Amino acid sequence: MRGVDVGDEVDAACVEGEAAQLLRLEQLPDVGCPEHRRLLSAQVGPSRASVPEPPSRGTIASMPDQVSTRPLLDKLGVRPDSRVAIAGVDDRAFRLLVEGRAAEVIDLAPGQQPPDGMDLIFLAADSVDELARLGVLRSAIVPDGAIWVVSRKGREATLRDVDVIDAAISMGLVDNKVVSFSPTHTALRSVIPRALRPPRTG
After folding, report:
1. Among 11, 65, 93, 107, which one is least packed by beta carbons within 10 Å?
2. What is the pTM of this model?
3. Rounded CA gap, 126 and 181, in Å?
4. In order of start, what are the domains of the chain with their CATH numbers?
């Protein structure tokens, strides 16, 4: 056992080892008086308590999905007055959910131009080539609308998040959110930067 001098403000003893824990000094009579105020540390067993290193930062899609109890449509921003277009997202359960909430839902065939004034567009993409459609879709959303790119995740992923981000930037969009769309798919949201949105009128 070794002692390390500390100031009078220290009021705890640290015992390191397998069961590292803090003990109040008043619980230790031999160190409770002023002349013996010390921080005692002892090592028990071969291991020592330590502060873990912070996790390395990764790209947005490589980060674990945040635990949330919010319904999927809330996380995706689908409102009762939303106009929604779905481009290639083959998920019947999702489609039924959107139909049950949004004001309008349309399906887009490959290469089809959506009507103007869409609040949300969901684009299925699992290759860089499929991301080229972002430019056409951008022109159809309202200034504060969004395009969600839905792609496979985990071991089945064929598209990197950085591919989506780079494609969005090249089309005048910026990514700002990622959501666990389903057990097999992730969704990354791209929006028009505020600086590029037309000023509000009225």
Report:
1. 93
2. 0.67
3. 14
4. 2-44 (no CATH), 60-196 (3.40.50.150)
Chain segment 117-159, per-residue pLDDT in tens: 999 999 999 999 999 999 999 999 999 999 999 999 999 999 9
Whose structure tokens read 């949004």?
102
The predicted model gives 91-118 an average pLDDT of 96
The answer to whether residue 69 scores a pLDDT higher than 90 is no
Backbone angles phi, psi at 167, to 5 degrees: -65, -40
103: number of Cβ within 10 Å: 11
* Phi-psi category of residue 78: left, alpha or beta, with phi > 0 → left and psi -120 to 50 → alpha: beta
Average of pLDDT values for 157-179? 97
Is a pLDDT exceeding 50 seen at residue 188?
Answer: yes
Residue 151 · residue 164 · CB < 8 Å = yes
Strand extents, DSSP E, 99-173 = 104-107, 118-124, 141-152
* The pair of three-digit structure tokens given for residue 121, joined into one six-digit string: 């567009």
Calculate the average pLDDT of the chain: 78
Burial class from Cβ neighbours inside 10 Å (0-12, 13-18, 19+) for residue 159 reads buried
Strands 38-41 and 83-87, bridge-based pairing: unpaired
